[in-house]
Amino acid sequence: MREINQWSQEEMAEKLEMSPTGYAKIEHGKTNLTLDKLKQIAQIFNIDVVELITKNDRSFFFSVCDNTNNTTYIGVNDILAMENEKLKLLLEAKENEITALKEVIELLKTK
């Protein structure tokens, strides 16, 4: 995507507020990406994280680490499954809210 936008590694590194060497390590898979950095990259390209990792029908495999030096390897299917689960939970919450609001309406009608 960087090349599609005709940005050099140096320009991309500047956008990410990191060194060109550090960014080159990301491109070459020599460093772990934090989820925050992945979100920042997606934001630079003005796309969703899921869209970033599934761009051009390619499958990507990310090594995502956290502050405790634990590393989680996430593939496209894992990310899509997490997104799907999140959306299911949101849908369930909305359905519960609708049910509660219907009950409030019925109570108000009876008064």
TrEMBL record:
Domain HTH cro/C1-type: 1-52
Coiled coil: 77-111
Pfam family, one: HTH_19
Swiss-Prot/TrEMBL keywords: Coiled coil, DNA-binding
Matches recorded under PROSITE patterns: HTH_CROC1 (PS50943)
Molecular-function GO term, any one: DNA binding
The name this protein goes by in its record: HTH cro/C1-type domain-containing protein
Source taxonomy: Bacteria, Pseudomonadati, Pseudomonadota, Gammaproteobacteria, Pasteurellales
